Amino acid sequence: MEKDSGQFPHNIVLKVTDVTVDKKADVMNAMGEQLAKEQEVKIVYDVKLLENGEEIQSDGILRIKIPLPDGMINAKLIKQNADGSYEKLNASIENGYLVYESDELGIVAIIADKEPEKEVAGEYYPGANTGGALTGDTSNSLLYMGIGFSSLSVLFFLIYKHKEENN
Length: 167
Description:
Elements: E1 2-3, E2 12-18, H1 20-31, E3 39-51, E4 54-56, E5 62-67, E6 76-80, E7 86-88, E8 92-94, E9 97-102, E10 106-113, H2 141-166
Antiparallel strand pairs: 1-5, 2-3, 3-4, 3-10, 5-9, 6-7, 6-10, 8-9
C-alpha cells in the first residue's frame, strides 16, 4: 500500500484479511449475471486501514497491491460498493500483484477463469488423483521379468560352478 503523498505514519497500517470462506457465496450471489459463465470468485479479502487499531477511511487516494496467486487466468479485481453491489476495478498486474487505486476500502475479490475439468477416461491418468479410484498395476512388467531372469541366470551359474569344483 502506498499513499500518493508518501508513506503512512507508523501507527497506521493496512490490514488485509482473507474472508473467502465467509463471503464467497455472498459475492457470487451479488455479482449474479455480471460474472461471466467461465469465471468464478477465487479469493475474497476485507481491506481495512487501521490507526492505532481503529478502522479509519483514507483522506486521499491509496495504491493497493493484492497478491495474485499463480495459475489464475484472466484475473480481475472487483470491489463491494456501499450499497452492496459490486463493480470491476481498473487494476493492473505488476510483479505478481493486482494493483489498484482507490479512496475507499472494504471487500475486494479476485475473479478468474474456472479451471478446466480433468477427465480420466479408460486409462491411467499420470497426474494427481482427483478423487476417482485408479485401478490396475502401472509398474513396468518387463523390468521385473528382466530382474527375475538375471537372478535365475546368476543362480544357475553359481550352481554350475559349484558342481564343476566338486568334480
